[in-house]
Design goal:
8 helices, five-stranded antiparallel beta sheet, alpha+beta
């Protein structure tokens, strides 16, 4: 019997299935194993060795839609951020993360966001096809985590951690932070984004949106109908909410809009 027939024989299939039952499991929307598993030239032994090696190196990356049509959530099946979240709205802010810099090299990537167990990629517009972008994103994420390099450079780490309750907070501020941390942030992170408490002044809660939520067309509705209503229901002192952005975020957005305008005129 030739090597190719041995690899595809019934007995060989039973051996492989008994050693690696995960291969038989139906998988939807996941990264497939490389095609060299089925190349007859390898022979049975080399095929099993290659299968074992690739299982160690390969990640099952799922994708999940978000309310933002231009943002996609990638779940690598492992922890991404040990603490807090990291937002990279522009390539200029990605200097502290090797992975973020690599993702920005993909044509069409507008922003990158790291959550506890997911990575959100926002594309420039609908003209950037996810079918073209996904394979590059998958490859970069898998190769990076296989390298065991740090996600964030410690000397440049400016990770924005959600503000927890502090001793100097009054009861109102402490309750606002508690509601945001326990009731609001988990829901926002499910949609591939995050919400950060930035202050409470004259009855107005100041919040910063990140990830898919920062450019989502329905973000205003989310803030007013969802977040504001919940805060006002539990805390009468809350008169309203206000979205705040960093000065550099506003500048980057203005420059991006000017560039889009120029491209539209040509």
């Amino acid at each position: 019997m030739s090597a190719s027939r041995a690899l595809l024989g019934v007995g060989s299939k039973r051996i492989i299935r008994s050693l690696f039952p995960i291969v038989r499991a139906p998988v939807r929307n996941l990264v497939a194993f490389p095609s060299h598993f089925t190349q007859p030239k390898l022979g049975l032994l080399r095929g099993i060795q290659a299968l074992r090696t690739t299982i160690v190196r390969t990640m099952f990356i799922q994708t999940q839609d978000t309310p933002n049509p231009n943002s996609l959530k990638f779940l690598p099946g492992r922890q991404v951020m040990e603490q807090g979240t990291a937002d990279f709205p522009t390539i200029e802010k990605a200097g502290r993360s090797p992975l973020a810099r690599l993702l920005f090299k993909i044509e069409g990537v507008k922003s990158v966001f790291f959550g506890p167990d997911f990575i959100t990629i926002t594309r420039i517009d609908e003209d950037c096809d996810w079918k073209v972008m996904k394979p590059e994103i998958y490859a970069i994420i898998m190769d990076f985590f296989a390298s065991n390099l740090p996600l964030i450079n410690e000397e440049k780490d400016k990770t924005e951690v959600a503000a927890g309750a502090e001793e100097e907070d009054d009861d109102t501020v402490a309750m606002i932070k508690e509601l945001i941390e326990t009731r609001i942030r988990p829901t926002v992170q499910e949609d591939g984004g995050d919400i950060i408490y930035k202050g409470f002044v004259d009855g107005i809660v100041k919040l910063k949106l990140q990830g898919s939520c920062s450019t989502c067309p329905s973000s205003v509705v989310t803030l007013k109908s969802g977040v504001q209503n919940m805060l006002q229901f539990y805390i009468p002192e809350v008169m309203g909410i206000e979205e705040v952005k960093d000065e550099l975020d506003d500048l980057a957005q203005t420059e991006f809009e000017n560039l889009e305008k120029k491209l539209g005129e040509t």
